[in-house]
């Protein structure tokens, strides 16, 4: 029997995460750091996409980590940490969005022309900002963050059917807003 060194050295990320979550429950600060390192960029990207404000997203991401580690005893299955963390983050974002007035992003033509991609990005952000919070969050989590329907349902704490319905509505409204913007 031959030993495959690569298979011995390969660590299952899910198993590793379960170990870290278990160690966090005992107060292991290294495990906390490992979980933060694993999820920080994606959590920050999710919050930034939802809030459209990098600084506020950083605050929310930090708050989400703190809350997740404080409430880790509520987590029944160590395999569910990722969904638990993202659910906290999305709820914090939704709470902040409810308190804010919607702001429209305007393209400033006096800035140097950075091409059609910049204009399209600004337009997408503007149109996303016009969608209700729940529809925007569903669309961002599914289309930009590439979460499965089940993962979006877990994060949003709604049934999969609600995710499908919201996603359909969000796509239709976004498409209508896009078509209207293209007329101008």
Structural class of the helices, strands and pairings?
A: mainly alpha
So how many helices?
A: 9
CATH topology of the largest domain: Rna Polymerase Sigma Factor, Chain: A
Q: Count every beta strand, where a strand is a DSSP E run of 2 or more residues.
A: 0
Identify the CATH class of the largest domain.
Answer: Mainly Alpha
Tally of domains: 2
Q: Give the integer mean of the pLDDT values.
A: 81
Morphology: elongated
Taking the sheet with the most strands, its summary is: none
Low-confidence stretches: none
SSE succession: HHHHHHHHH
User: Termini, distance in Å?
Assistant: 69 Å
CATH architecture of the largest domain: Orthogonal Bundle
Proportion of beta-strand residues: under 5%
Instruction: Give the proportion of residues in helices.
Output: over 70%
Question: Compute the gyration radius: what is it?
Answer: 19 Å
CATH superfamily caption of the largest domain: RNA polymerase sigma factor, region 2, helix turn helix motif
List its salient traits:
elongated; mainly alpha; Rna Polymerase Sigma Factor, Chain: A; 9 helices; 2 domains; Arc Repressor Mutant, subunit A; 184 residues
């Amino acid at each position: 029997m031959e030993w495959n060194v690569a298979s011995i050295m390969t660590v299952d990320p899910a198993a590793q995460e379960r170990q870290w979550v278990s160690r966090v429950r005992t107060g292991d600060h290294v495990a906390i750091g490992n979980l933060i390192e694993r999820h920080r960029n994606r959590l920050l990207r999710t919050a930034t996409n939802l809030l459209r404000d990098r600084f506020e997203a950083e605050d929310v991401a930090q708050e989400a980590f703190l809350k997740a580690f404080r409430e880790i005893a509520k987590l029944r299955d160590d395999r569910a940490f990722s969904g638990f963390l993202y659910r906290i983050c999305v709820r914090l974002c939704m709470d902040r969005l409810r308190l804010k007035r919607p702001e429209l992003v305007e393209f400033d033509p006096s800035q140097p022309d950075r091409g059609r991609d910049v204009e399209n990005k600004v337009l997408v952000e503007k149109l996303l900002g016009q969608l209700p919070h729940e529809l925007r969050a569903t669309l961002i989590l599914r289309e930009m963050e590439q979460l499965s329907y089940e993962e979006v349902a877990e994060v949003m704490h709604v049934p999969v059917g609600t995710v499908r319905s919201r996603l359909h509505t969000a796509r239709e409204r976004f498409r209508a807003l896009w078509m209207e913007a293209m007329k101008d």
